[in-house]
Amino acid sequence: MEQFYQVLVWVGVFLYWLIIAGVTMRVVFQRRIVGVSLAWLMIIFIIPIGGVFAYLLFGELNLGKKRAERARDMFHPFAEWFQRLNDCPSHQPQLMSQNARPISDLCEKRLGVPGLVGNTLSLQDSPQQILHSIIDDIQQAKESIHLEFYIWHAGGLADAVGVALIQAAKRGLSVRLLLDSAGSSRFFRSHWPKLMRQAGIEITQALAVSPLRMFFRRLDLRQHRKIIVIDNTIAYTGSMNLVDPAFFKTNADVGQWVDVMVRLTGPTVPLLNCIQAWDWEVETGQRFLPELPACGIDTSPDTIDTVQVIPSGPGMPDEIIHQVLLLSIYQAQKSVVITTPYFVPSEHLQHALKGAAERGLSVHIVVPDKNDSTMVEWASRSFFGELLQAGVKIHRFHGGLLHTKSVVIDDTHCLIGTVNLDMRSLWLNFEVTLAVDSLEFTQQLSWLQQEYIKNSTSIDNNEWTKRPMLNKLGERFFYMFSPLL
């Protein structure tokens, strides 16, 4: 009997080694960022069984069999739609500035999506302004309203948006609402879905969370885009979820969330509608390709505002927004100003920011003083020392949880959208960013960034080096997990 137990132990040890070796080889052969691979190997070896279990759940970009099949079937018709944008008069590469052209060329080569001129953009920076503007446009809609959000949280003016949508559906408009299953879990447990469906609104959960399918699809892969398209002529996108900040996470002790949205008209609107249609079809199998942009545009100097739409996530080219961000920083000649709620940069992004400061550019990063994610906040601090030494100015915002995701280059062009500067947003989630080449719009965004900085405390490098050793140890601990945050 003793020999039997010895054999059983050796068999168990061998099987354990086989599992560890197999998962280790799987991690190595994935050929991703070295830091990501090392972080997973550390977890697997330090927490053997739990590490393997965690890797099977969250280690690979697995969209699920059904969604992956749909995405493959959708690729050709959507690629054709994008290709037809090149024949639209809004595609005027000769009118693009030297800042917009390289980004447009990169996105056209990798995504098949060109930059389009002839747009009008309005920056909205208060929740009341944003929500009232959305309500007004919904009330004036004539044909269709398509919405896509990570979070819908009931309360305040968010309820007024819900009422406006119900009234629009009762007027006979086509209303479709796509919400992330995890981010909007409280909404789906509320009375709102039933009311909306009774009125004729189509509601779909994106990436539904199901413990029964945890090994068949990555559970932390989220639909993080924020898009509204009305009548295929008006669009909104930006950092704000469908929430009224006065009623959202009021007990989190971080203050109200501070966001912006961009209201657009022009040829970029159908393109955002197409991205929303892509996400809808991935979830439902229903195809609603929008009409292409109207042919006639005004090409006077005051209207040549180039907008490059950059979607990312499964089914899109790897790290495309990350590439555009790096390209923008390396092209900068005077200044780079970034606002982000979650700052856990890749090695390439960290080097780009340090290099920009070291070659004499004015580089500023604005982050919230208090964050709703403890792990991200501590991991973020681990990057401050090197950046401060290189000359980067880091500001901690005191006016609430700064949720605006923006990058302004040389006060002449900018990036704005849904992407946080962390690995999750840049590599995993469904996101969308606008690369905007408009001097007037960029100066408005730059002014807003400067208002954020005025309401912030700048970190002094000498004082930062004197922080307690316990803080430094905590930062180094969470730094080890930063590639996975």
TrEMBL record:
Reaction equation(s) it catalyzes: 2 a 1,2-diacyl-sn-glycero-3-phospho-(1'-sn-glycerol) = a cardiolipin + glycerol
Transmembrane parts of this sequence: 7-29, 35-58
Subcellular location(s) of the protein: Cell inner membrane; Cell membrane
UniProt record, GO biological process: cardiolipin biosynthetic process
Active site per database record: H224, K226, D231, H403, K405, D410
Assigned EC number: 2.7.8.-
Keyword Cell inner membrane carried by entry: yes
Gene Ontology MF annotations: cardiolipin synthase activity
Presence of keyword Ribosomal protein: no
SUPFAM superfamilies reported for this sequence: Phospholipase D/nuclease
CDD domains: PLDc_EcCLS_like_1, PLDc_EcCLS_like_2
PLD phosphodiesterase domain sequence ranges: 219-246, 398-425
Annotated GO CC locations: plasma membrane
Membrane topology: Multi-pass membrane protein
Keywords: Cell inner membrane, Cell membrane, Lipid biosynthesis, Lipid metabolism, Membrane, Phospholipid biosynthesis, Phospholipid metabolism, Repeat, Transferase, Transmembrane, Transmembrane helix
Pfam families: PLDc_2, PLDc_N
Entry-linked HAMAP family: Cardiolipin_synth_ClsA (MF_00190)
Function text: Catalyzes the reversible phosphatidyl group transfer from one phosphatidylglycerol molecule to another to form cardiolipin (CL) (diphosphatidylglycerol) and glycerol.
Family to which this protein belongs: Belongs to the phospholipase D family. Cardiolipin synthase subfamily. ClsA sub-subfamily.
Protein name, per record: Cardiolipin synthase A
